[in-house]
Write a structure and sequence with these properties.
This protein is mostly helical and 82 residues long. It is 70% helix and 0% strand. It is built from 2 helices and no strands.
């Protein structure tokens, strides 16, 4: 029980960050806007933080891409609108 409790909080935090990144990615794709990480406060000042921020947004893109791929594989359950 102790190990589970120790691991549950960081895993939940990572899961929530991934969901937030995917939500931002989906909103960005729908609105056709780009995130300019150079204009985010504190990110512009540090190359390492900018790299982490860019990677964070790429995770959301990957989640959206993988979700779309899985939905296309289940075409009989999720048919495309024509």
């Amino acid at each position: 029980m102790g190990l589970f409790r120790t691991m549950a909080r960081p895993l939940r935090f990572l899961f929530e960050l991934t969901l937030l990144s995917a939500t931002i990615s989906g909103a960005r794709r729908i609105s056709q806007l780009e995130v300019d990480s150079k204009k985010i406060p504190y990110v512009n000042e540090n190359e390492t933080v900018r790299g982490i921020a860019d990677s964070y947004f790429k995770v959301g893109d990957w989640v959206i891409d993988q979700t779309a791929l899985q939905l296309k594989k289940a075409a009989e359950v999720f048919p495309q609108k024509k």
